[in-house]
Every structure is written in structure tokens, then in C-alpha cells.
Amino acid sequence: MKKKIFVFFPDGVGLRNFVFTDFKDIGENKGFDIHYWNNTVFSLKDNLGFNEVKIENHQTHPLTPLYLRARKHIELNVSKRKFDDQVYPTYKFPFNYRGFKNTLKTLYIKSLIGLNNSERGIERIRKKINTLERSTSKYAYCKAQLEVHKPDLVFCTTQRASQSISALLAAKDLGIPTATFVYSWDNVPKAMQVVETDYYFVWSDLMKAEVLQYYPFVKEEQIFVTGTPQFETHFDTSLLESRVNFFKQYSLDVNKKYICYSGDDETTSPLDQYYLEDLANAVRSLNNKGYNLGIIYRKCPVDFTKRYDAVIEANKDVIEVIDPIWKQVGTMWNEVLPAKEDLKLLYNVCEHSEFVTNVCSSTVFDFVAHNKPCIYYNYEQPQLKKGIRDIGQNYKYVHFRSMPSDQAAVFCTNKNDLEGLVQQILDGKLSNVSEGKKWFEIVAGKTPTKASENIWKAVKTILE
């Protein structure tokens, strides 16, 4: 009899990894009966014809977000003390004192932090969150669904969504094994482990070591190193379009060489538009010296600001905009969902660009998979003033310590150097690809094309 697996989407961030890759096909070929337990507004049944169990009750306990915020702060405080490292406080977002309600919430969170600012305190907060979520109507609702459908395992596609807590607690209370996937390369040191499951699927040996380091309640036998499906499509050559067809489709000049500027979200890089402007100036200067260059600007899919518009308009002679193919199905950032077509688009942007430039994005790995270099901007803009976050802080984060050397990306630390770095890359005199591939292996594991298969092997092992 086939084992029934609930692939659980608490939000839409896992669609790219677990719907638009070969993940489902591989699982079905291995004999699993796959049902998508769907907490999102995107209907997998209507849009894709998948077996779907829809979660219509989205209620979390009103106190849960406050306890989660306190837990994150306490975990970062504990890490700062335990590892004697000042990086951890920089992961915190400032408290909100705007208005009476926000001030009350902030004072409540700070009181929770003050009363529980230790490893034992974290344990108390974790237990309280579970108690709160077990008291919700969503917990009862999800438990009833599980009792009807009787899955053999629930696999949660991200570890960081508060919407998943009650559902996973319901599964555990019914004795159904639970597993979660650690979604992003920077999540573990940032205290973004919201859920607690029986098993954890991680990208690499590095991430496994991090989970054990930061979460002592997790045992080694609970962790499976699987890789991430995030990069699998970059090795699927069937996605490749010819240069002529791709350029025609997006009205690009086939005689030009294009540099990809990959935009960032406003939190990570609040002055991101000025780095795009710097690149445009460098490209125009090189064109005056005989080069024939353009820029493909691909925005961050969850950035809805107008901050780039003036720069793009002023530089439309060199900047071509190719937006990612994502669809907004709600008002929150995690309700902006990728379309399958975007995987092919990103593949071809990587393939037909000379290299990528951005602020500290994981697109370095997307492009390295295509043997293309990456320039990271790491200098202050003159527009930086009090209250605006300096992007230099990003490169001090723990996940950047995984670089095998400072040549894993090409760092531009001075605006005046940018043109020269661009020219050296174009002339074949500078590249980070060799070291970047080593970094990619450290972060994403040794088998980037086998992640989906590895996850299903882990599921089989758990059930056996």
C-alpha cells in the first residue's frame, strides 16, 4: 500500500522548491501518494490539478506573534553571550512604538524577554507557544483533517512560518511523523526556527552543524542532509533558449553583452537603486571606450517600491527591465508567489548575461551554476544618513563566514573601482567562479541536482 505524504505549505515560499521542480514526479515515481496540505491562497488543485487538502482556517493565537518575537530576541541574546559575538544583535528589527497598541505590544514583548532571557527561558517560551496554538480553532480544524485523511508523514516546506505551528502540533499529537525543510541559507543563525518537528532536512553539512549548534534540543539523528531543490533547475538544459530567441522575446540587442543587475528588497538594501545607477554609469563609460554593453535589471520579486523608477528612466539607453514572473495573490510579502515560467526565465537570464551584480544576494549561486561571475557591492552611498541601514552590515552576517576565501565573490569596496572590475571580468582577467563553486558546495551541498531525490530517500528512511 502506498504511503500517503502530506506536503504542507504554510505559506507560498516553498512553491518554487516543491511544486515547480520535479519534486512531485520523483516522489510519485518512488511510490508515494502525495497530497498538498495547502494553507495558501494559491489553489494547487485548480491551477495544476494536484491532490490538495485546503486549510481554510488561518487563525493563530493573538499572543503567538508576540511570543515568537520574544523568542527570536532571546535566542539572539543567548547566541551573543554563548559565542561572544556582536553580530547577533544586528539580526534584530527595531521595536515599534507608533501608537498605543504597538507600544503595548512592544512593552509586553520586552517583559517576556526580561523574564525569560536564558536557554531555560527559551524552553518556557517554546512550551507557551505550543500551549497557545493548541488552544486555537485552527489546531482542532487541522487535527480533524488529519484524522480524516490519515497521512503517514507531514513534510513542512519551511521552518519559519507561524501558520504551521498548530498544524504540526496536531500531527505530532496524533502520532504522525513530522519533518521540515530549512528554507534559506541564512535562516539558522538568524533565529528563524519557528517550528519543531521530528526531523529536519537541511541543505548541507554546514547547515546541519548550525542546527546542532543553535538548537541543542535537536539530536543528530533527527537531521538529514538533502541539498535544496532551489538550484536544481539551473542544471536542466532543456530550459535553455537560444540567444537569438531569448533576445527577441525580451527586445534585447543581440549585438550587446548584458550584465544582470539583481535587485534587493528594501530592508536588505534600502539604497539599492543607487548601485544600479553606478553600474549604468560604468557601462556608459565603457561603451564610450568601444564596448557594447547593456544592463538587464531583474527586480526583487517582493519589492513593490517605486525607488528604481527614476534611475531606470534616466538610463533607459542602457537598462532593460525584465521582471520576474511572480504573481501577487495577497497583500503580504509571502503571498507573492513564483510562477513556473520564472524558473525558465531566470535560467536564461543567467545563461545570456555576462555576470551578475547585487548586494549580498544568493543569486551568486544561481550564476555560478552557469559559470558566471558575481560582483557584490560593499561601499556606502553618499545618500546614507541616520535611520538608513548600511549594506555593509550584511557581509558581517554569519552565513558569509562560510566563504572559502574572499575571492568567492568579486567585492567592489569603492565606487571608483566598479568600472575597472566590470572591464576586467568582461576581458576575462577576473572571475570568482572557481572559488564561488567551492562556496556553492559548502552552502548547498555536494549534490545540487539530487536534492528532491534525497528528500524522498529521507522520507522513506523515516517511514521504515
From TrEMBL:
Keywords annotated in UniProt: Transferase
Q: Which GO terms describe its molecular function?
A: transferase activity
Q: Which InterPro entries match?
A: TagF_C (IPR043148)
Could you identify this protein by its name?
A: UDP-N-acetylglucosamine:LPS N-acetylglucosamine transferase
Instruction: Give the organism the record lists.
Output: Mariniflexile fucanivorans
Which lineage do the record's taxonomy fields give for this organism? Bacteria, Pseudomonadati, Bacteroidota, Flavobacteriia, Flavobacteriales
